[in-house]
Amino acid sequence: MAIQQTRLRIGENGRVVIPASVRKALGVGVGDEIILQQQDGDFRITTQQQRIARARRRIRQYIKPGTPLVAEFLAERREAAKHE
């Protein structure tokens, strides 16, 4: 993945304009919500959809293809409910 860098200026009331090319790369438009995360002095801009996709990729490495996770989860919850 290539690292891209853009310089921005902080405007009135602390506002920053995200360039069109960055918005396009994020897949966001007017009115969409983004997430700004600070870690170790750096900032990362993502969307909720990107976070969900990343979590799914991480989970897939631990489960077998075709495993019905929802059905398995519901079965576990039903079994636990019997013992409550």
Structural write-up:
The protein is an alpha+beta fold and 84 residues long. It has one domain (12-82). Helices cover 40% and strands 12% of the residues. The protein has helices spanning 20-26, 48-60, 69-82; strands at 35-39, 42-46. The mean pLDDT is 88.
Average of the residue pLDDT scores: 88
The geometry reads as: elongated
- CA-to-CA gap between the ends? 49 Å
Largest sheet composition: 2 strands, antiparallel
How many domains, in number, for the residues? 1
Number of helices: 3
Structural class assignment: alpha+beta
Residues in helices, as a percent range = 40-55%
* Cα gyration radius (Å): 20 Å
What is the number of E strands?
Answer: 2
Order of helices and strands: HEEHH
Uncertain residue ranges: none
Q: Which strand order does the major sheet show?
A: 1-2
Beta-strand share of residues: 5-15%
Short description:
With 84 residues, the protein is α+β, with helices and mostly antiparallel strands.
